[in-house]
Amino acid sequence: MNEQLQTAIDHWGAVAPMIQCPSVEQEYETLLEHMEEALTLANGNPDSPLNSLIQVMAQAIKQYEEQNIMNATGGGISALRYLMKVHKIKQSDLKEVGSQGVVSEILNGKRSLTVRHIRALSKRFGISPNTFLEP
């Protein structure tokens, strides 16, 4: 057997959870933590050997979010709250939506997400704009 393949087989149990789409929220949160650590270790170096792992992890995270966030949260505002929690984002961090006051009004239901907000949030989180539409 090829030596590289044997090495991959020997370590697959440790590698697979970092590259496969999570099936439950706990796996998702663990994958997010692993990716944050990998990003820290890569330190923005474009030649880091971790970059390809980070890309695969990001795809697995994106796939989980596309499959689960809308169903788990029930609407655009709930999805935004959930994403803010998971990504540890404060209202003031969402400059693409507006000021902290605007974000607060949206989260409290006093204001609706606009098409511009939805496009910006979709781009920021790398998920479908449909996630932010109300049922």
Structure description:
The chain is an all-alpha fold and 135 residues long. It is 65% helix and 0% strand. It is built from six helices and no strands. The protein has helices at residues 3-19, 25-42, 51-73, 76-86, 100-107, 115-125. Helix 2 runs antiparallel to helix 3 (51-73) and helix 3 runs antiparallel to helix 4 (76-86). The chain is elongated. The chain starts with a helix and ends in a 10-residue tail after the last helix. The model has no long low-confidence stretch (mean pLDDT 88).
Cα-based radius of gyration, to the nearest Å: 18 Å
Global morphology: elongated
Helix content: 55-70%
Q: What is the structural class?
A: mainly alpha
Please describe the biggest sheet, giving its number of strands, its sense, and whether it closes into a barrel. Answer: none
Average residue pLDDT: 88
> Any low-confidence stretches, pLDDT <50, length ≥5?
none
Q: Which H/E pattern describes the elements?
A: HHHHHH
Instruction: Count every helix, treating DSSP H or I runs of 4 or more residues as helices.
Output: 6
Distance between the termini: 53 Å
List keywords for this structure.
single chain; 135 residues; mainly alpha; 6 helices
Topology:
Layout: H1 3-19, H2 25-42, H3 51-73, H4 76-86, H5 100-107, H6 115-125
Task: Provide a brief overview of the structure.
This protein has 135 residues and is mainly alpha-helical. Helices cover 65% and strands 0% of the residues. The model has no long low-confidence stretch (mean pLDDT 88).
